[in-house]
Amino acid sequence: MAGVSVIQMFGRRVSWRGGCEWHRHSRNGQRRMAVSGQSPYCSAVESPAVQHAGRSRRKILTLQSMNPQVRAVEYAVRGPIVLKAGEIEKELQNGVKKPFDEVIKANIGDAHAMGQQPITFLRQVVALCTYPDLLDNPSLPNDAKRRARRILESCGGQSLGSYSASQGVNCIREDVAKFIEKRDGGVPAHPDNIYLTTGASDGISSILKILVSGEGQSRTGVMIPIPQYPLYSAALSELDAIQVNYYLDEENCWALDVRELQRAYYSAREYCNPKVLCIINPGNPTGQVQSKHCIEEVIHFALEEGLFLLADEVYQDNIYSKSCQFHSFKKVLYEMGPEYFNNVELASFHSTSKGYMGECGYRGGYMEVVNLHPDITAQLVKLLSVRLCPPVSGQAAMDVVVNPPHPGEESYEQFIKEKEAILSNLAEKAKLTEELFNQVPGIKCNPLQGAMYAFPRIFIPDKAIEKSKEHQMAPDMYYCMRLLEETGICVVPGSGFGQKEGTHHFRMTILPPVEKLKILLQKVKDFHMRFLEDYA
Amino acid sequence: MAGVSVIQMFGRRVSWRGGCEWHRHSRNGQRRMAVSGQSPYCSAVESPAVQHAGRSRRKILTLQSMNPQVRAVEYAVRGPIVLKAGEIEKELQNGVKKPFDEVIKANIGDAHAMGQQPITFLRQVVALCTYPDLLDNPSLPNDAKRRARRILESCGGQSLGSYSASQGVNCIREDVAKFIEKRDGGVPAHPDNIYLTTGASDGISSILKILVSGEGQSRTGVMIPIPQYPLYSAALSELDAIQVNYYLDEENCWALDVRELQRAYYSAREYCNPKVLCIINPGNPTGQVQSKHCIEEVIHFALEEGLFLLADEVYQDNIYSKSCQFHSFKKVLYEMGPEYFNNVELASFHSTSKGYMGECGYRGGYMEVVNLHPDITAQLVKLLSVRLCPPVSGQAAMDVVVNPPHPGEESYEQFIKEKEAILSNLAEKAKLTEELFNQVPGIKCNPLQGAMYAFPRIFIPDKAIEKSKEHQMAPDMYYCMRLLEETGICVVPGSGFGQKEGTHHFRMTILPPVEKLKILLQKVKDFHMRFLEDYA
């Protein structure tokens, strides 16, 4: 029975453990958090001898013997709270009574899972590429067939089943370059600088992998916003790079202040070699949209201090505030003149997963590089070639995103109607969420200018903070666990993204349909009022 | 013009550089090859100051400043010879006269690119999942529709565009488990132990990432066959793990001899902690199929020495010799009794890319784990969750591979016909290739028992070896470059896979259509005879 008890212990640990990790994280400030020996896993459990027929043997691969950098990785968006949500869903299926009928997963930006319908044209093109017999089928539109034929002609053996070049299918990279040129008002883009990727995460991880080097005080430091999207902290942990935090200004709609960049940079130079600066615009989880002036300041700073820029622009289509506009780093860089455009090294990222498409499952994306040293281009292609190529159907989906129906084509009107319905619906939900949260005492929510999340600040009473310590959880993890257990709503604690010491938040997507979102927000409000009362 | 000259230098280096790298590799024997400072890149080029309008600035990301572990990565299957092939293709397109009309890329196992047609049923199911409006289309068969409905019901929002669980879509993991049980004559398989992956490469890299730890003499050693598929050496280089080579026995049809495993293991213990043993069965590039007895010996050795087993079984459907049969490591492990089945830690891999499907572009695959510690299960899920999920359309393709039409279903006959035509055609080409190579003086080719490659040994005269040294290339790289330049045939030098000191080989796929393959083999023969004459 030894095996079973280990699994049970483990089950419990999953629930409680995240708390300690994130708690430590939020106290740690400047440097990367988890250090191998400190893991609550390690102190809690000895590598169990396996008891079975025959001799008992120790496992080869255990928490003690595994890669400590992987052990240190945390990824809150699919972390302990989501595992708990899965457990509760199973209980509901097995007839366990709860104060709710379903778990609502507002933890992840997964539009289709929340009922958003795919863009018809995109799916038609990909289906035609998948099963080219459909090219003779009169029920599918000719513009979709033209797109599909063009993609297939650029594939080996005219099949999505062939490997593409590691950098991606040629004609799709051409389309991406044209899309960027158009988006950026004519700033030149070249297919050679486009790399199709397995979602944006893959591009970000790949370029970070190349960038990280050095030992001790020379170890590469990577500046990331706090709050951040935890792909960054996870990738840096895997790579054993130094995470250098710069804080976004919550009092000022989560704006990026270049003085804070300077503070973070100069203090980091005392213990590492900061050489990469990551920007997420529009912000995730914070939803701010950067002004052109702010981007100029960031670029100037990067040039002055010799920082390689990573611009995560996957939410570029998700702008809701009338006063805001998306400016790509590439375009601003160009407009700042040759001193900047010929020198600053930049990689920017886009994806099929967000925007109005929401095609997360296709794992499509691209990276554009600017001013990459030609030697590094070769190194990047070599690194990517080990994984052979990004999924070709995801590349085809990316092609439709960058080359949608044009005015005059037969699918144009339906495409525009679908796209605008989704985006205006998201804008409505962004406004609704902000307004409703700000009506709750003890919750304060900045405007959702863009992206697809609210990241409200929540007041947690001292007594609740004490209670959370008893459970060895970060206070906002405790809050979110109680929210989940009492309402079935799954959101991610702010500590999973990082936040200023002493502040607490959670991230919630605005993707549920409007009527459901209203109920959800009302439930959060009721829960919050009860929580305040319970711990008054 | 500084920029241009750098690019030109670079262009030349691409062609010649691989040679030095592979040359060093083949001389290095036991330990991993490339060491940062030794790269011919580093000595050849200084990080160029960028000359532009305004100040000139040094690049941040250069060969000197980049991650040295990534710099050390080599991947021959898409390496310098393939870049050269691309250059030649462009020259042909631009009207440059060559002694041939087209480049034949026999470097990579990319079946559809060589004209193999997709399995109809597989594409129908994936197209139906992609564009569910087709479920109403009478031209598609009902069994394909049933499969598609079942997959969609297991997807969030019934859409391939939703993220799946990081471990993969539930019902597909169930189908994989059933497939394995059936394949292995009833040996139990559980969906919880199945992880869907982005091709097999992704699964192999992920589990290696978790396995590698320690410093200095305690650094993890990973035993791999030589010749190997270079994903392994590349992944180990990225992870800075110690590559421990064991040599397959060319004189004995590339068999694995357990005494050689012992030799490699005990000598590796002097400088690292060998704890992982990788097996490729059927072999890539070597094409041998392991006997059950041999697998038993390997498993016994792994238990005795405490080694974690990785079994790369992506060619399990590609068995051509009548005297050979595929035995999965999992099944043999089970049949060896509880002492083994309850203790040996094993991960095995399969893929949509090979077999009779050849669906490389979908990046579908799975990993099955046996005896993984429950703590490690959680760590693995966490690590995979950072990349969110494997491409869901690739998962759907995997589902068809493990759950093809059953007897009595309307698509069954066509499916069987397509599958058997492809496999018998491959068997014919395997035999043809072996026979024709063995008719050429100075070429010796083992039987192609399985997989999809020939890996013939080639005699290279001393004068040619001297010539290759002048070009700073490994002798077989020089041979393959000349073959490419004179015939347009692109194959990969044996030095890219590893080989015994003083021996030379190349890897060639048997995927071109029979008539084209015959011409290709005749061209290789003619080239080889000329080559022997030229350097007599």
Describe this structure in words.
2 copies of one chain form a homodimer. Chain A has 536 residues and is of the alpha/beta class. Chain A has 3 domains: 2-72, no CATH class; 77-115 and 416-534, Aspartate Aminotransferase, domain 1 (Alpha-Beta Complex); 166-391, Type I PLP-dependent aspartate aminotransferase-like (Major domain) (Aspartate Aminotransferase, domain 2), CATH 3.40.640.10. The first copy, chain A, is 45% helix and 12% strand. The first copy, chain A, has helices at 2-28, 40-44, 68-72, 80-93, 120-130, 142-153, 170-183, 199-211, 231-239, 258-268, 292-305, 329-335, 338-341, 374-386, 392-402, 412-438, 462-470, 475-487, 514-534; strands at residues 49-50, 57-58, 104-105, 194-198, 220-226, 242-247, 273-280, 308-312, 346-351, 364-370, 443-444, 453-454, 457-458, 489-490, 492-493, 506-509. Chain A has a 7-stranded mixed β-sheet with strand order 4-10-9-8-7-5-6, with helices on both faces. In chain A, strands 12-16-15 form a 3-stranded antiparallel β-sheet. In chain A, strand 1 and strand 2 (57-58) form a beta hairpin. In chain A, helix 5 (120-130) crosses helix 6 (142-153) and helix 16 runs parallel beside helix 19. The two termini of chain A are 44 Å apart. Mean pLDDT of chain A is 88; it is low at 1-54. Chains A and B meet through helix 1, helix 3, helix 5, helix 8 and helix 9 of A and helix 1, strand 2, helix 3, helix 5 and helix 8 of B.
